[in-house]
Amino acid sequence: MKFLAILSSMPLESEMVLAHLKNVHAIEIAGKTVYKGKLSGHDILMLNTGIGKVNAAHSATCLIENYPVKGLINIGVGGAYPGSGLKIGDIAIASKEIYGDEGVITSKGWESLKKIGIPLVSHGKKKYFNEFLLDNKLVKLITHHPSPITKGNFITVSATTGTRKRAIELEKRFDAICENMEGAAIAQICTIYKIPMLEIRGISNIAGERDKRKWNLDIASQNCQKLVLKMLCLKTEND
Fold first, then answer.
1. Which pLDDT tens digit goes with each residue over 53-96?
2. Cα(114)–Cα(48) distance, rounded to whole angstroms?
3. Domains of the chain: which residue ranges?
4. Could you tell me where the beta strands, DSSP code E, fall in the chain?
5. The model's pTM
6. How far apart are CA 159 and CA 223, in angstroms?
7. Is the distance from CB of 146 to CB of 129 less than 8 angstroms?
8. Which fold has domain 3-231?
9. pLDDT digit string, tens, across residues 7-28
10. How far is CA 236 from the centre of its chain?
């Protein structure tokens, strides 16, 4: 038996999927609760990682080291960059995950880890610095969904973007559509273990606008989870 792992940072981002799991067993690993169950014939592992890169990487590693994981889906909410065309409630799928902070600050500005010359991961001659390609084969699992779905580069940051100037800077530097705080760390772990990964995020806000009155975490997380359930051939009660 091999498992499909589903990771989100917060319970809000996965509670709808968890509600549809059958034969659920909760297991404690390293202080984290892993939910093991069935969903439309798939053997599922679900875990809330907590916020940030370290929590995300630790959670992914815990699952992979304790269970035979055949693939991993990272779900949750994200902030769209101003030029992406994404709106609150839209769905974004990562074609690439990029560490937006790691690197060097020089007199000319930011440069990637290539400036240091030490890769985060090496597989033979292949060296990974800031960027990790995700598994596009998993995208074919996606069935029809009423919300727009946009593929593009995601950026993982340690500090969420709070100004429009910074949002535009990151968007242009990496040709990115949205940002989050966990994805690249999970992608790095999946690259190390050679496990295919898919990342799906619902857009909760426009990056650079720190006005939470304009945010909608609920609709973003719900739309993301509805897509995951459709991918796994399960209809939700609202459909």
1. 999 999 999 999 999 999 999 999 999 999 999 999 999 999 99
2. 32
3. 3-231
4. 3-8, 22-29, 32-39, 42-48, 69-80, 91-99, 104-106, 109-111, 121-123, 126-128, 131-133, 149-156, 176-180, 197-206
5. 0.93
6. 25
7. no
8. Rossmann fold (3.40.50)
9. 999 999 999 999 999 999 999 9
10. 22
